[in-house]
């Protein structure tokens, strides 16, 4: 099959590789579209500690069921359009038993620890596969994985109806978290973003978000103004930079919750004094659990905000231009989601 292989960091080529061979209870999916994630960019540039070449990257995808290997009854048909959660756990440890295989000590993320979806075919456990209607644009379905991340982040925050939420960072995940928080009943959703084109994009989503640029004006006064001097019930730190860490403890209300989502390239300082004095709760998140991936699939199946999701796709490249697509994703600061067209 045709695949994009990182043979060494900063070098990815299209080459013929063996098609994956299925084990028991596995499915083979012919990939239609694959999304480029920040993780893929970090792997390509050699900034990911766990991914090692040679590797086929990619973990966001939609495709068609090509083959299954099982003797159990299944609710799928060959040729049906599907999405699949791109990770596996051991299935036996305490965390996996709790449904938290996303933090299994033997976690395997496709495109990171094993070959991913920047290829004509990818194999996945059958239990990770979900069917989607033919009527839904496959480019929207390709966003189910980042939407699952947002679902996981908001659910883990225990955001309640009527509460307020601040999202620090208005990139794709930040926008998706804002959308899910609004859907979850937040009374006020504010995005903090310094890129003016992304500020305009978030405002044009027309979902009732307020957007503030912390570089323009007094950010402390802006936060007091939109929260009536209270601060936010939940702060989602998505930026992964020091400025975001500085803002999150200031912006959270007394007794509020901070969700650590953005992964910093280097360790930053957190105001632990504010965490103590304000009795803040801080939670980490990693990828998404399967129940939240299923929730994202259901949201897309039921057209909850598919028209908004489609707007996030700002650029598309053919798989043959994967290197150009990755380099574009590194250099261009204004795009949102970049998709690779893998096969027809």
Automatic annotation (TrEMBL):
Which domain of life does this protein belong to? Bacteria
Tell me which residues make up the Alcohol dehydrogenase-like N-terminal domain.
25-134
User: Taking every annotated instance into account, which residue ranges of this chain make up the domain Alcohol dehydrogenase-like C-terminal?
Assistant: 172-301
**Sorted alphabetically, which keywords does the UniProt record give?**
Oxidoreductase
PANTHER family membership: L-THREONINE 3-DEHYDROGENASE
Tell me the protein's name: Zinc-binding dehydrogenase
Source species: Clostridium moutaii
């Amino acid at each position: 099959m045709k695949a994009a292989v990182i043979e060494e960091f900063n070098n990815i080529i299209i080459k013929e590789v063996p098609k994956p061979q299925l084990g028991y209870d596995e499915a083979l999916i012919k990939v239609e579209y694959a999304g480029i994630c920040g993780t893929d960019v970090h792997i390509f540039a050699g900034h990911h500690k766990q991914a090692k070449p040679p590797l086929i990257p990619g973990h966001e995808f939609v495709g068609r069921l090509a083959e299954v290997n099982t003797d159990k009854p299944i609710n799928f048909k060959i040729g049906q359009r599907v999405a699949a959660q791109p990770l596996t756990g051991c299935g036996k440890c305490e965390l996996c038993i709790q449904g938290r295989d996303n933090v299994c000590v033997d976690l395997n993320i496709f495109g990171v620890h094993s070959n991913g979806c920047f290829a004509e075919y990818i194999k996945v456990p059958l239990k990770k596969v979900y069917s989607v209607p033919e009527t839904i644009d496959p480019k929207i379905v390709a966003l189910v994985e980042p939407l699952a991340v947002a679902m996981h982040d908001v659910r883990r925050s225990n955001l309640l109806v009527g509460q307020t939420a601040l999202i620090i960072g208005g990139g794709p995940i930040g926008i998706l978290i804002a959308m899910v928080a609004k859907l979850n009943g937040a009374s006020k959703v504010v995005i903090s973003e310094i890129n003016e084109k992304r500020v305009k994009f978030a405002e044009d989503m027309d979902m009732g978000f307020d957007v503030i640029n912390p570089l323009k004006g007094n950010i402390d006064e802006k936060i007091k103004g939109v929260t009536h001097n209270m601060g936010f019930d939940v702060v989602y730190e998505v930026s992964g930079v020091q400025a975001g860490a500085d803002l999150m403890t200031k912006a959270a209300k007394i007794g509020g919750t901070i969700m650590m989502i953005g992964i910093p390239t280097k360790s930053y300082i957190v105001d632990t004094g504010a965490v103590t004095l304000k009795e803040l709760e801080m939670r980490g998140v990693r990828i998404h659990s399967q129940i939240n991936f299923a929730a994202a699939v259901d949201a897309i199946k039921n057209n909850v905000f598919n028209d908004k999701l489609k707007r996030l796709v700002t650029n598309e490249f053919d798989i043959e231009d994967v290197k150009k697509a990755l380099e574009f994703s590194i250099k261009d600061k204004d795009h949102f989601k970049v998709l690779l067209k893998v096969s027809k």
